[in-house]
Amino acid sequence: MTPAKKPAAGASRNPKRDVSRDPKDYCIATIGSHSALQILKGARDEGVPNLAICKRGTEGVYKSFGVADEILIVDDWSEWDKKVEPELLKRNAIIIPHGSFISNMGHAKVQNMKAMYYGTKEILEWESNRTMERKWLLDADILMPRVFEKPEDIDCPVIVKFHGAGGGFGYFVVRNAEQFYEVKNRKYPEENDFTIQEYIIGVPLYIHYFFSPIIGELEIMSFDKRYESNADSIGRIKAEDQLAAKIHTSYTIVGNIPIVVRESMLPEFFAMGERVIAASRRLHNTTTGGKLTKGLFGPFCLETIVTRKLQTFVFEISARIVAGTNPFIEGSPYTALKYDVPMSTGRRIARDIKQAIEGGKLEKVLG
Ligand code: AMP
Fold first, then answer.
1. pTM of the entire structure?
2. Is the CB of 232 under 6 A from ligand 1?
3. CA of 152 to the centre of ligand 1 (A)
4. Residue 23, burial from CB neighbour count under 10 angstroms (0-12, 13-18, 19+)
5. Residues 331, 336, 338, 344, Cα dihedral to 10°
6. Could you give the angle at the alpha carbon of 220 between the alpha carbons of 219 and 225, nearest 5°?
7. Mean pLDDT for each consecutive 10-residue tract of the chain (367 residues)?
8. Half-sphere exposure of 79 toward its Cβ, with a 13 Å CA cutoff?
9. Would the CB of 343 count as within 6 Å of ligand 1?
10. Which of 163, 205, 262, 330 is most buried (CB neighbours < 10 A)?
């Protein structure tokens, strides 16, 4: 045990927080969905107790795979404050955010959570605010698709993304303003919150990074591409049938497929990750009035399209674990090079937390 640091404000904190250097006095908690299986398994592999918080009806999955030490069942996410948070505080739990966690909770709720939270909370807002996300990535000298302010400006193939659209549903591709209005007015007359982005011809590639503030090192964990319906099914029928059936391309995500990249591209991918982290610290410093410079850490993903000239365009960043890391519960070809145990991103998070606890540096990984 280390000498007790004076507990920060917030009397509801478990008194063991800030004092114990034993990972067993803590708990890694997450919502049962998205990438929870690898997060829970990763915690167990690193010897940190875990907790799955499941909406009633989904708990069977976590029981079946046997990865959860404890399962807490809720009927509705509105029970979070009264039912879940007290349980988290009691267990000294550290929440691991993932895509479903953020969409269930919303940013405001995440900001006000009293339970410990792995990652920088402010960054979740930047990634969901397209203007801020763009500012961040451009400041990091990242190549991005052009954005068109209004349909009349369209002068190349574009992808139209509705902000409410979950997981690529409702996106459409057009070449000019006339085509834009034809699709928009016919299919989405009420929707006015959208982005018009240059459509980049190339292959999608999702780069999974991990940056540990404990060892101060950027790692590439793995790569994936998404299995999207019906973008990935259109090629199964011939062009004239596609036209006859009037099929519109949609990008609803169904699953993830592992990828290994040309080795000569790795230096650029590492450099991109480093620049994104450096820019996040500058931005964090500005947005918190110079009070905080933690910036981005933990798992994150650059969502890219790589062209035939091998230019890498980033169309989005996810500042947390992505479901594309799920094929690598037993590790990836890249983590196999670096680690002598199967290292998933979920396990890498647990190891970061464990090292932070043992080193008395837990605050370094909490947002
Ligand atoms: P998103 O919901 O932004 O992750 O995008 C869903 C899918 O749309 C991606 O997996 C890509 O296949 C495709 N996509 C998104 N933006 C672009 C773009 N600018 N150019 C080409 N394809 C894109």
1. 0.92
2. no
3. 22
4. buried
5. 0
6. 155
7. 36 60 97 98 98 97 97 96 96 96 86 94 84 95 97 96 67 93 90 92 98 97 95 90 84 94 98 97 80 87 98 96 98 98 98 97 94
8. 13
9. no
10. 205
d(CA 44, CA 350): 9
Parse the chain into domains and list their residue ranges. 147-198
Angle at 278 between CA 275 and CA 283, to 5 degrees: 120
Quick one: which atom of ligand 1 is closest to the CA of 168? 2
Check pocket membership of 303 for ligand 1, CB cut-off 6 A.
Answer: yes
Query: Which residue's alpha carbon is nearest to atom 1 within ligand 1?
Result: 168
Q: Is the CB of 315 under 6 A from ligand 1?
A: yes
- Please state whether beta strands 194-198 and 217-230 pair in parallel, antiparallel, or not at all (unpaired): unpaired
147-198 CATH, one of 2.30.30.40, 3.40.920.10, 3.30.1490.20, 3.40.50.720: 3.30.1490.20
